[in-house]
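Onboarding guide, step 5: your first structure request.
Type a short instruction followed by the sequence, for example:

Predict the 3D structure of this protein.
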Amino acid sequence: MKNWTESKEERKLRKAREKALQELADFDQETGLYDLPYNSNPLIKDKHYVLCLKHGTKYSSDYVNRLYNMVKRNCTIDYEFVCLTEDTNGLDPNVKIIPLPPGLKGWWCKPYMFSNDLPLKGTVLYLDLDVVISNNIDKLFMYEPTKWCTIRDFTRVMRPQWQKYNSSVVRFKTGELDYVWKDFSRDPIAVQRKHFGDQDHLYEATRNNPATVYPDSWIQSWKWEVRKSKLLGRGTRGTRELTTIEHVVPNSDCCVCVFHGDPNPEHCKDPWVVDNWR
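The system replies with structure tokens like these:
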């Protein structure tokens, strides 16, 4: 029955709320995913970006290009691939470039990805360059889409109750975490003295707006969760070519494997790594 006491604008807002509630009914609380096809869900109309960061010479342009190709093979959601960098040499022409501001180094470039100054508007999925994508990553966009998400740091392997973050994989709405950048940029030296790295700053700055963490099984550490303690064999021509003696692969739920520390993906010759890191 029509409510004659509400204005046209109020009626419009009520119908929008009712529609949203109906769509939320299709949300599976256990999996964090919607039953509706992702691209047809009216709640999810954002533009989507996959973002990476390349600074200095630690990682070559080849790492950006390989990540671009891995995402292309493993994501069916419409997205734009973006790289924050001060050096565009060798990058695939399909990669959108956003210049890094001067004065930032290493992982302390990362807080800039949360800045409102970036010419992006929508949902951003950030991935470190030292990852190997082994399965479809659509679920990283789909999981708890109204919240910002990251992963628990891999210290979780030794300390199961560990709650601090690892910033190898982060998903957020543009502008949502601008204060993380502002807190850092106000006094970068003080923040760097206080925290070991960017992910400690991220954890501290978002205490009042904590992340929803992805399931541990979706993003794994190559060293501590895939390889575990299995022995490594070295290449005949040099010590940098490493192959796990026993056959290891990520679990079936895993879509991103993180090569934090040493070795990097280029030095790991496990067959599944060679097959996917290209």
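Each response can be followed by summary notes, for example: The CA atoms of residues 108 and 196 lie 10 Å apart.
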